[in-house]
């Protein structure tokens, strides 16, 4: 992440720059609002740290002009006049947060890391939306609306796990959309052209569970008159969604764990 520090005090700039570079950020300095605006026009900046009181253009006016250039830029205002009124005014201008002088570096780090996480989430959401547009002929059963931070975190995580071969545990209360998230992971993955198979574990009798998941050979038990393909084989190359997995019989859990770990199954 590229951070622009705007402060007329060289000592303050050097202090913040040294601290942020140790955290791994790329840092650019500006000694006043005019220089900051000139840099901002030429350089891609993710976050601006700017002093509220500076000679010439104030921090508020500088932020307003930066926002006019790029409304999406994130910012933290640093002020020696901390108050509720200051916070309200800064937020109205579009700042993400504000800090009082002298700057508490630990607090600053937490605020920056949160903003960095928000930026990464927004990038993940843009990619999810773009990829869903590409899958227009295979829409989800209902649209997913993610405006709150927790939902954005969920979709960001969906984007990240969808490109992996990992087994995913989705947990949540009944009706919160676990199946929808499972389908979204499938649609965003390389498995999207293969089957998506679902099973509600609460609806299968215990004595039929193993056969349902792994299939069985002819004569494996009374009534097994022919070979039967289980859901794992049906979903080969795709995804299998085991709903209400907490209802899975204890005796079957080690076999399921082995199948997930070794990517192999054995029919009954």
What does this structure look like?
The strands form two sheets. Strands 2-1-3-4-5 form a five-stranded parallel sheet, sandwiched between helices. The N and C termini lie far apart (54 Å). The protein is built from ten helices and seven strands. The mean pLDDT is 86. Helices cover 44% and strands 13% of the residues. Among the domains are: 2-103, Response regulator (Rossmann fold), CATH 3.40.50; 194-268, Rossmann fold (3-Layer(aba) Sandwich), CATH 3.40.50. The chain has helices at 10-22, 33-42, 59-69, 84-92, 105-134, 149-162, 178-188, 209-214, 231-234, 253-262, and strands at residues 2-6, 26-30, 47-51, 74-79, 97-100, 196-200, 239-243. It is α/β, with parallel strands linked by helices. Helix 2 runs parallel beside helix 3 and helix 6 packs across helix 7.
Identify the notable features of this structure and list them briefly.
268 residues, Rossmann fold, five-stranded parallel sheet, two-stranded parallel sheet, 10 helices, 7 strands, Sig_transdc_resp-reg_receiver, ATP binding, Sigma-54-dependent Fis family transcriptional regulator
Widest β-sheet, arrangement of strands = 2-1-3-4-5
SSE ordering: EHEHEHEHEHHHEHHEH
The fourth-level CATH homologous superfamily of the domain at 2-103 is: Response regulator
Class from secondary-structure proportions: alpha/beta
What is the CATH-assigned architecture of the domain at 2-103?
Answer: 3-Layer(aba) Sandwich
User: How many beta-strand runs?
Assistant: 7
Largest sheet: 5 strands, parallel
Low-confidence stretches: none
Q: What is the percentage of strand-forming residues?
A: 5-15%
Oligomer: single chain
Task: Compute the CA-based radius of gyration.
Answer: 27 Å
CATH topology-level name of the domain at 2-103: Rossmann fold
């Amino acid at each position: 992440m590229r951070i622009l520090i705007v402060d007329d005090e060289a000592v303050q700039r050097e202090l913040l720059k040294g601290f942020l570079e140790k955290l791994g950020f790329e840092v650019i300095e500006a000694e006043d609002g005019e220089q900051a605006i000139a840099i901002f026009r030429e350089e891609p900046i993710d976050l601006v740290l700017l002093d509220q009181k500076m000679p010439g253009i104030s921090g508020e006016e500088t932020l307003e002009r930066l926002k006019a250039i790029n409304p999406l830029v994130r910012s933290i205002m640093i002020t020696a006049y901390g108050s509720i009124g200051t916070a309200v005014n800064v937020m109205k201008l579009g700042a993400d947060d504000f800090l009082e002088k002298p700057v508490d570096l630990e607090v600053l780090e937490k605020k920056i890391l949160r903003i960095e996480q928000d930026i990464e989430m927004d990038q993940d959401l843009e990619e999810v939306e773009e990829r869903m547009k590409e899958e227009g002929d295979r829409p989800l059963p209902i649209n997913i609306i993610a405006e709150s931070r927790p939902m954005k975190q969920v979709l960001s995580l969906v984007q990240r796990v969808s490109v992996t071969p990992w087994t995913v545990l989705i947990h949540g209360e009944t009706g919160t959309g676990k199946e929808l998230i499972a389908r979204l992971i499938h649609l965003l993955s390389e498995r999207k052209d293969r089957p998506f198979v679902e099973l509600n574990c609460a609806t299968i009798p215990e004595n039929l569970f193993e056969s349902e998941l792994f299939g069985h050979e002819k004569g494996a038990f009374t009534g097994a008159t022919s070979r039967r393909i289980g859901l794992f084989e049906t979903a080969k190359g795709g995804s299998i969604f085991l709903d209400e997995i907490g209802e899975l019989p204890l005796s079957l859990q080690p076999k399921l764990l082995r199948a997930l770990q070794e990517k192999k199954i054995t029919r009954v």
